[in-house]
Design a protein that fits this description.
The protein is built from 10 helices and no strands. The chain has 238 residues and is mainly alpha-helical.
Length: 238
């Protein structure tokens, strides 16, 4: 699963989420580009509320966090919070959506590294991001955080899919985006999530042990399993 490395940046993709579909209120401003300045003010306020949501939802279960506490933590009124996000549930979904955004690609060119070194660099970078955001990570993946919620599952699923695509872009995985290759990566993702749970929540694995497990499994997937699956799929198509 993908997680954002640092902070939150509001989306501007015109999606239908309640916090982005509301019209902007008219605020008198002076100087050039007044509409941009109004938008910046609104985005900053939304970012403030999202950051407060990250803090509170990572500290306590969803059901124990009130809109009053969220508003106070963000330095806004409850009315202002509802104006931007509608309900506590919608705010929680935006927190999850921001959390699952992919971080920037690795700063170094992994293609110049030996395969095993590139795999280790990829795994270590992901584990570092998870560690820095561990409270939010555990809150989101804690069983029963918000109950059975198809919209929440869809957000998490999109994050996992984006993570799978990124992996095929930065590492030489045979088969690329073929369905069978994607299935292999999704199985690896499930292992990674469980391993992180054993590390951060249960304490039965150390970070070094999780890193070793994920390094060796991903190396085996890339070096042996994915090529064999891709070859089998090519043979079946003849």
């Amino acid at each position: 699963m993908s997680v954002a490395a640092e902070g939150y940046r509001p989306r501007s993709d015109g999606s239908s989420s309640s916090s982005w579909s509301r019209p902007l209120r008219s605020v008198p401003v002076q100087g050039a580009n007044p509409s941009r300045r109004v938008r910046l003010q609104v985005d900053e306020r939304q970012s403030q509320i999202i950051a407060a949501g990250h803090r509170l939802f990572s500290q306590r279960p969803y059901s124990e966090v009130s809109t009053t506490e969220l508003a106070e933590a963000a330095g806004v009124t409850r009315a202002n919070l509802h104006y931007h996000f509608g309900t506590k549930r919608q705010l929680f979904l935006e927190v999850v959506r921001s959390f699952t955004q992919l971080p920037p690609p690795p700063p170094q060119d992994l293609e110049t590294l030996p395969l095993r070194d590139a795999i280790d660099a990829t795994v270590d970078r992901w584990l570092e991001i998870v560690w820095r955001t561990r409270d939010t990570y555990l809150a989101i993946f804690r069983a029963g955080t918000i109950g059975s919620d198809p919209e929440l599952e869809e957000i998490l699923e999109r994050g996992r899919e984006a993570w799978a695509v990124r992996l095929t872009e930065i590492l030489p995985v045979a088969g690329g985006s073929a369905p069978a290759t994607r299935a292999l990566i999704r199985a690896y993702q499930a292992l990674a999530e469980d391993a992180v749970d054993e590390w951060l929540r249960r304490g039965r694995l150390t970070r070094a042990e999780v890193r070793l497990l994920l390094d060796e499994t991903l190396a085996t997937l890339i070096e042996r399993i994915a090529p064999a699956v891709a070859e089998g799929a090519a043979g079946a198509g003849k």
